[in-house]
Amino acid sequence: MSKDIERMMQDIGQRARAAARVLGYAGGEARGTALRAAAAAIRQSVSQIMAANVEDLDHGRAKGLSAAMMDRLALDSTRIQAIAQSLEAVAAQPDPVGAVLAEWDMPSGLHIQRVATPLGVVGVIYESRPNVTADAGALCLKAGNAVILRGGSESFHSSRAIHACLLQGVRAAGLPEDAIQLVPTRDRAAVGAMLTDVAHIDVIVPRGGKSLVARVQDDARVPVFAHLEGICHIYVDAAADLEKARRVILNAKTRRPGICGAVECVLVDRAFYEAQGAPFLQDLIAAGVEVRAAGELAAIPGSVAAQDDDFGREFLDMKVAAKIVDGVSGAIEHIGTYGSNHTDAILTEDDAAAEVFFARLDSAILMRNASTQFADGGEFGMGAEIGIATGKLHARGPVGAAQLTAFKYLVTGDGTVRP
Questions:
Q1: Into how many domains does the chain fold?
Q2: Interval 83-113: pLDDT, tens
Q3: Is the confidence at residue 79, as pLDDT, over 80?
Q4: 258: pLDDT confidence band, cut at 50, 70 and 90?
C-alpha cells in the first residue's frame, strides 16, 4: 500500500470517528431532516446524476460487463426517483437510536434497561450498483453512525454525484459532513486499508460478488456483516398451484436477473412433474432464459443439459438450473447441500409441507408462494437495506437501520448497594 493511500485512509477514518461522536447524541429529528434534504437534492440533480452514469456505462461497456451487470449499473429518471423515495422512506421510520429494547426490575431494587445505540463507524464496500451509495449512507445516518463508502470502479462517477446530494442534506441539517464520506479513489489498496482499520471502523459491510465478499471475509480484522452468494431456490411442491407457480417463477428469474434475490435453481417435485409437467420452465425459455436442466427435465425443448457445477451457482444472468426432487425432503436436502442461506421459497397449497420447509431450512429468508425478488429491505418495510446478511451473529436477513445499532444497559438504583 502506498504511503499516500495509507495517509488518506487514516485521515478519513479519524474524521469519521469524530463525526460518529457527534451523531451519537444528535437527535433523530436532525438525521431525518438530513435525509429529506438529500432526497430533494437527488430530485434536483437528475440530469447531473444521469450524465455521470453515462460515463460509468461507457466504462462498463469498455470492460465488457455482462448485460445483467450493466442493468445493475444503469440509472434512469425512474430509478433516480426511486432513490429519492427510498431516502424519504428511511427518514419516515421510527428513530432506532435510544429505543428501549427491554427493561426489567431486580429484587435488589435496580431498574435495568437495554437501549439501542449506534455502532459507531460503518465501512461499506460495494460494486456496480450506484444506489447503494444512497441506501448505505441513509441507513447508517438514520442509525446514528458515520459511514465510509467505497464504491466499485464501475459506479465511480454515479456514486460521486449521489454522494454530493447526501452531503447537501447533511449540511442542511447542521450535521458534520464527515458523517458520510466517499473514498475518492479507484485504487484497491483503499479496500485493504479499511479491512484492517480497527482503530476507526467498527464493522464492514461488503456488497458485491463472490470474489469481493470472500476477500473481505479472508482479510478483514474488522467485524463483517456479509453474505457470500445469493443462490436462491424455488421448490415446486406436489401441492403447488400451477398458475401461481408460473407467475412467481417467471418473475423471480426475469424481473431483474442480476440481483441477489433472483432465483438460480428451480426444484420440481416428482409427483407434480408427472401430473402437470413443468410449463413454468417453458415460460422461462420463451422469455429468453437458458434453462440448464438435469435428468428428465433435459427433454424439455429448448433446455440445455445441466452440468454438475450448475447447481450451487449464482448466475446473476438469464440462466437458471432445474432439477426434479423427491418431495419436500428431497428439496431440503438439495438446498442444504447447494444453497447459500440467503433466500429459498416453496410453492405449495399444503400447510404441512410449508411448515416442514420453514422448520428444517435455516436460510436468512424463507418464503411461501412469493417471488424471491422480494428479498429486499425496501420490500420488508425497512425503506432500504445495505445488504442481506446470511451469518448468524448480530444481523441476519435485510440489514436496515435497526440492524445497524448495538445496545447498552442503563441501570438505575436509589442508593442501592450489593450485599
A1: 2
A2: 999 999 999 999 999 999 999 999 999 999 9
A3: yes
A4: confident
| Distant-in-sequence, close-in-space partners of 118: CB < 8 Å, separation ≥ 6 | 20, 23, 24, 97, 143, 144, 145, 404, 405, 406
Q: How far is 73 from 256, CA to CA, in rounded Å? A: 12
Confidence of residue 321 (pLDDT cuts 50, 70, 90): very high
Cα dihedral angle (311, 274, 286, 357), rounded to 10 degrees?
-50
Q: Is 395 helix (H, G, I), strand (E, B) or coil?
A: coil
Mean residue pLDDT of the chain comes to 93
DSSP state for residue 393 in the 8-state scheme? S
Q: What is the pLDDT of residues 338-393, one digit of tens each?
A: 999 999 999 999 999 999 999 999 999 999 999 999 998 778 887 777 878 887 77
Per-residue model confidence (pLDDT) at position 312: 95
pTM for the model: 0.82
Nearest in space to 140 (alpha carbons), one of 183, 196, 180, 102: 180
**CA atoms of 336 and 381, how far apart (whole Å):** 28
Q: Look up residue 342 and give its DSSP letter.
A: S
Question: Cell 449540511 belongs to which residue?
Answer: 171
Identify the domain containing residue 236 by its residue range.
Answer: 232-374
Whether residue 185 lies inside any domain: the answer is yes
CATH, residue 76: 3.40.605.10
Residue reference for cell 426489567: 104
Note whether 137 and 250 are same-domain residues: no
Same domain for 128 and 212: yes
Per the listing, cell 436442466 goes with 293
Q: Are 235 and 269 in contact (CB under 8 A)?
A: yes
pLDDT band at residue 227 under the 50/70/90 scheme: low
Give the torsion sign (CA, 150, 184, 142, 201): positive
DSSP string of 80-106? Answer: HHHHHHHHHHHHHSPP-TT-EEEEEE-
Residue of 407, 393, 402, 390 lying closest to 140 (CA atoms): 402
Considering only CA atoms, which of 93, 99, 95, 91 is closest in space to residue 172? 91
Integer Cα distance of 73 and 236 in angstroms? 32
3-state SS assignment for residue 363: coil
| Local confidence band at 202 (pLDDT 50, 70, 90 cut-offs) | very high
